[in-house]
Amino acid sequence: MTLPAGHVKQPAGEVTLDHRPLIVTALAQASVQGRLEALRQTHFPAERNQVPAHVTLFHALPGSMADDVLRRLKAVCGPLPPPRAEMPHLRFMGRGVAMAVHSPELSAIRDELAHGWHGLLTLQDAQGWRPHVTIQNKVTGAQARATFERLSATFQPITTQFCALALWRYCGGPWQPVARVGFRGS
Fold first, then answer.
1. How far is CA 39 from CA 49, 138, 152, in A?
2. Which helix (H) or strand (E) element contains residue 36?
3. Contacts of 89 (CB under 8 A, 6+ apart)
4. What is the pLDDT of residues 128-160, one digit of tens each?
5. Burial of 76 (0-12, 13-18, 19+ CB in 10 A)
């Protein structure tokens, strides 16, 4: 039996709503996604690297609303062409390194989604959005600074498109894939 996205089957066979938070991310076109994954695999602490490289649009949407969230993602994103993006520079984050993302198109999509989810957003998701791909996180400041300097020495800006938005369920560390919503033509 296939359950709706917001439901989970309990051991006794009973179906309940799944309240674990939902995460929405953007995934780059395959060639760039592969490069981002390679950087993350190289620099992210292995024991903490539980999810693929991504740009987080929303950190914690209500888990019980998975079906509604998925419908809205399809309605807003499905008809649109893949948003273009530039990754113009690295960002030092104190205990990590990220690649900055500049995409007016993706920002407009996020704004549209946020407008439709007004009242459901956590404080983190309702405040300003600084899109990035985390390459390294939760290391010492010295490790992060060394990685930032090493990568900055050879960094070349990246131009890409985002091919899809991914919907995930937060499982206390790893994320469980729920759905992938492609943009038109990707």
1. 11, 15, 13
2. helix 30-43
3. 99, 100, 155, 157
4. 899 999 999 999 999 999 999 999 999 999 999
5. middle
